[in-house]
Amino acid sequence: MTVMDVFLGRLDPDMCVVTAAADGERAGCLVGFSSQCSIDPVRFVVWLSEVNRTFRVARSADVLAVHLLARDQRGTAEVFGGRTGDLVDKFHEVRWRAGYGGAVVLEDAEAWFVGRVVERAAGGDHVGFVLEPVEWGGRETSGGRLLRLADARTIRPGHPVD
Protein backbone atom coordinates (compact mmCIF):
# COMPACT_ATOMS: atom_id res chain seq x y z
CA MET A 1 0.00 0.00 0.00
CA THR A 2 1.33 3.44 -0.90
CA VAL A 3 0.83 6.76 0.88
CA MET A 4 -1.58 7.76 -1.88
CA ASP A 5 -3.64 4.58 -1.32
CA VAL A 6 -4.09 5.63 2.29
CA PHE A 7 -5.24 9.07 1.17
CA LEU A 8 -7.31 8.11 -1.89
CA GLY A 9 -8.94 5.17 -0.10
CA ARG A 10 -10.64 7.60 2.27
CA LEU A 11 -12.32 9.61 -0.50
CA ASP A 12 -15.94 8.89 -1.39
CA PRO A 13 -16.94 11.39 -4.09
CA ASP A 14 -20.36 11.74 -5.66
CA MET A 15 -20.61 9.86 -8.93
CA CYS A 16 -22.16 11.40 -12.02
CA VAL A 17 -23.13 10.35 -15.51
CA VAL A 18 -21.64 12.46 -18.28
CA THR A 19 -23.25 12.38 -21.72
CA ALA A 20 -21.96 13.71 -25.02
CA ALA A 21 -23.38 14.06 -28.51
CA ALA A 22 -21.45 14.99 -31.65
CA ASP A 23 -21.34 14.08 -35.33
CA GLY A 24 -24.53 11.99 -35.06
CA GLU A 25 -23.23 9.89 -32.15
CA ARG A 26 -24.30 9.74 -28.50
CA ALA A 27 -22.25 8.43 -25.60
CA GLY A 28 -22.30 8.44 -21.82
CA CYS A 29 -20.30 7.10 -18.91
CA LEU A 30 -20.19 6.96 -15.13
CA VAL A 31 -17.61 9.42 -13.77
CA GLY A 32 -15.99 9.58 -10.36
CA PHE A 33 -13.61 12.46 -11.07
CA SER A 34 -15.49 15.78 -11.18
CA SER A 35 -15.69 19.01 -9.23
CA GLN A 36 -16.62 22.64 -9.25
CA CYS A 37 -13.39 24.37 -10.24
CA SER A 38 -14.33 28.09 -10.22
CA ILE A 39 -16.73 30.27 -8.22
CA ASP A 40 -16.92 33.36 -10.41
CA PRO A 41 -17.50 32.51 -13.14
CA VAL A 42 -19.01 29.18 -12.17
CA ARG A 43 -17.11 26.34 -13.81
CA PHE A 44 -17.23 22.59 -13.34
CA VAL A 45 -14.72 20.01 -14.57
CA VAL A 46 -15.36 16.37 -15.49
CA TRP A 47 -12.49 14.00 -16.18
CA LEU A 48 -13.04 11.39 -18.91
CA SER A 49 -10.86 8.34 -19.46
CA GLU A 50 -9.03 8.36 -22.78
CA VAL A 51 -9.96 4.68 -23.39
CA ASN A 52 -13.66 5.43 -23.07
CA ARG A 53 -16.06 5.88 -26.03
CA THR A 54 -17.59 8.89 -24.27
CA PHE A 55 -14.19 10.59 -24.43
CA ARG A 56 -13.99 9.96 -28.18
CA VAL A 57 -17.42 11.55 -28.75
CA ALA A 58 -16.80 14.37 -26.24
CA ARG A 59 -13.64 15.46 -28.10
CA SER A 60 -15.92 16.81 -30.86
CA ALA A 61 -18.78 18.02 -28.64
CA ASP A 62 -19.47 21.68 -27.90
CA VAL A 63 -21.51 20.82 -24.79
CA LEU A 64 -21.66 17.97 -22.27
CA ALA A 65 -24.42 17.08 -19.82
CA VAL A 66 -23.58 16.10 -16.23
CA HIS A 67 -26.12 14.18 -14.14
CA LEU A 68 -26.30 13.34 -10.44
CA LEU A 69 -27.99 10.07 -9.50
CA ALA A 70 -29.67 9.10 -6.27
CA ARG A 71 -28.33 6.08 -4.44
CA ASP A 72 -31.40 4.07 -5.50
CA GLN A 73 -30.56 4.67 -9.19
CA ARG A 74 -27.78 2.10 -9.21
CA GLY A 75 -29.35 0.46 -12.28
CA THR A 76 -28.72 3.61 -14.31
CA ALA A 77 -25.17 3.74 -12.94
CA GLU A 78 -24.63 0.15 -14.07
CA VAL A 79 -25.85 0.98 -17.59
CA PHE A 80 -23.41 3.88 -17.92
CA GLY A 81 -20.55 2.41 -15.90
CA GLY A 82 -20.73 -1.30 -16.62
CA ARG A 83 -21.38 -1.37 -20.35
CA THR A 84 -19.46 0.02 -23.28
CA GLY A 85 -21.13 2.15 -25.90
CA ASP A 86 -18.89 0.39 -28.41
CA LEU A 87 -21.21 -2.63 -28.07
CA VAL A 88 -24.61 -1.35 -26.85
CA ASP A 89 -26.79 1.74 -27.16
CA LYS A 90 -27.11 2.75 -23.51
CA PHE A 91 -29.79 5.31 -24.36
CA HIS A 92 -32.31 2.57 -25.29
CA GLU A 93 -32.38 1.70 -21.58
CA VAL A 94 -33.07 5.16 -20.10
CA ARG A 95 -35.43 8.09 -20.59
CA TRP A 96 -33.65 11.04 -22.19
CA ARG A 97 -34.31 14.17 -24.20
CA ALA A 98 -32.33 16.65 -26.24
CA GLY A 99 -31.11 19.66 -24.27
CA TYR A 100 -29.24 22.86 -25.05
CA GLY A 101 -26.99 22.52 -28.08
CA GLY A 102 -28.13 18.94 -28.71
CA ALA A 103 -26.90 17.68 -25.34
CA VAL A 104 -28.34 14.37 -24.10
CA VAL A 105 -30.21 14.97 -20.81
CA LEU A 106 -31.26 11.99 -18.68
CA GLU A 107 -34.83 12.71 -17.59
CA ASP A 108 -34.71 10.71 -14.35
CA ALA A 109 -31.53 12.25 -12.93
CA GLU A 110 -31.68 13.81 -9.46
CA ALA A 111 -30.11 16.98 -10.85
CA TRP A 112 -28.32 17.85 -14.08
CA PHE A 113 -26.71 20.62 -16.06
CA VAL A 114 -25.52 21.16 -19.59
CA GLY A 115 -22.17 22.88 -19.87
CA ARG A 116 -20.42 24.48 -22.80
CA VAL A 117 -16.88 23.10 -23.10
CA VAL A 118 -14.54 26.05 -22.48
CA GLU A 119 -11.28 24.15 -22.03
CA ARG A 120 -9.77 20.69 -22.20
CA ALA A 121 -6.84 19.77 -19.94
CA ALA A 122 -4.62 16.69 -20.09
CA GLY A 123 -4.30 14.89 -16.78
CA GLY A 124 -2.57 11.53 -17.05
CA ASP A 125 -4.94 8.89 -18.44
CA HIS A 126 -7.94 11.27 -18.21
CA VAL A 127 -8.77 14.56 -19.90
CA GLY A 128 -10.57 17.30 -17.97
CA PHE A 129 -13.44 19.05 -19.71
CA VAL A 130 -14.01 22.44 -18.08
CA LEU A 131 -17.68 23.37 -18.46
CA GLU A 132 -19.59 26.64 -18.30
CA PRO A 133 -23.18 25.84 -17.21
CA VAL A 134 -25.78 27.00 -19.75
CA GLU A 135 -28.87 24.95 -18.77
CA TRP A 136 -29.82 23.02 -15.61
CA GLY A 137 -32.63 21.32 -13.75
CA GLY A 138 -33.59 18.45 -11.50
CA ARG A 139 -36.29 16.86 -9.40
CA GLU A 140 -38.36 19.18 -7.25
CA THR A 141 -38.10 16.73 -4.37
CA SER A 142 -34.98 14.83 -3.46
CA GLY A 143 -34.82 11.12 -4.13
CA GLY A 144 -32.47 10.66 -1.21
CA ARG A 145 -28.71 10.38 -0.82
CA LEU A 146 -26.63 10.80 -3.93
CA LEU A 147 -24.79 7.84 -5.45
CA ARG A 148 -21.21 7.84 -4.20
CA LEU A 149 -18.08 5.93 -5.11
CA ALA A 150 -18.66 3.44 -2.27
CA ASP A 151 -22.07 2.61 -3.79
CA ALA A 152 -20.56 2.02 -7.23
CA ARG A 153 -17.31 0.20 -6.42
CA THR A 154 -18.66 -3.18 -7.53
CA ILE A 155 -19.64 -1.95 -11.01
CA ARG A 156 -17.06 -3.42 -13.37
CA PRO A 157 -16.00 -0.86 -16.00
CA GLY A 158 -17.56 -1.49 -19.40
CA HIS A 159 -14.62 -0.10 -21.36
CA PRO A 160 -11.45 -2.10 -21.85
CA VAL A 161 -8.84 -1.73 -19.14
CA ASP A 162 -5.20 -2.19 -20.16
From TrEMBL:
Name of the protein this chain belongs to: Flavin oxidoreductase
Coiled coil: none
Residue ranges of domain Flavin reductase like in the record: 8-148
Entry keyword set: Oxidoreductase
InterPro entries in the record: Flavin_Rdtase-like_dom, NADH-dep_flavin_reductase, Split_barrel_FMN-bd
GO terms assigned for molecular function: FMN binding; riboflavin reductase (NADPH) activity
Annotated Pfam families: Flavin_Reduct
